[in-house]
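# step 3/5: fold
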Amino acid sequence: MPVIENRVSIARQPPRSATRITLAWTSDDAGNATVATADDVIGVLTRVAFAPGAGGTQPTAAYDVTLTDTAGVDVLNGKGADLSNTVPSHVHAAVPLPDGTTYGPCDVYGRLTIKVSGAGPGKTGVCVLNVVSRS
């Protein structure tokens, strides 16, 4: 199945701009999906939204999504776990600090990959990434 990616640039007060990247996924027979951005994502990842499919393509309850950078680090810091299969939700990317607290949003540079697990076979959803350029 082809990867569906949609990028929309939103003009903001110069020199900053925002980009919304929409990644659609369809799970395989094992209930997993992997989709990477077509190009590098550069800026500050401020928000990630999850929208499950509906009807016959609705994922299994409590499915999981990770969003990894080129080093394989989940920039959501585990916040994409146990997602609702009926209600859209969103999280903010967070950089973990040594003392266990978090600091967000996080800088990204390179391709990002969403990995869906536990969704059930042939299920669908969308992840929307909001990225703001550094000034």
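# step 4/5: annotate
Residues 26-132 form a domain with the Jelly Rolls fold (CATH 2.60.120).
# step 5/5: archive (pending)
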